[in-house]
Amino acid sequence: MTETSFYLAFSTFNLLLLLTTSVILTNLYAKARQLAQNTSLLTELAVQMTRIDRHSANEVALIAREISSDIGRLRQLELLEGSH
Questions:
Q1: pLDDT, position 41
Q2: Dihedral of the alpha carbons of 67, 72, 75, 79, in degrees to the nearest 10
Q3: What is the pTM of this model?
Q4: Phi and psi (nearest 5°) for 2?
């Protein structure tokens, strides 16, 4: 094997390694981008769930106030009926 053939083989091997590394890095970059998008979507979903939870808590509080008010009215009616 001549020296030129050796360098040619070595250079070809290095090019193949470079190509393989490039493919791996490209795949990793694509996965990192996808992960970033998924993280962004999950963050947005968490924000929306927080809004829904807040809204639900407000609705439950409103219903509780209405029930409490209704109970108060029923007690007043019972007192009025009891006094007649």
A1: 94
A2: -160
A3: 0.55
A4: -80, 165
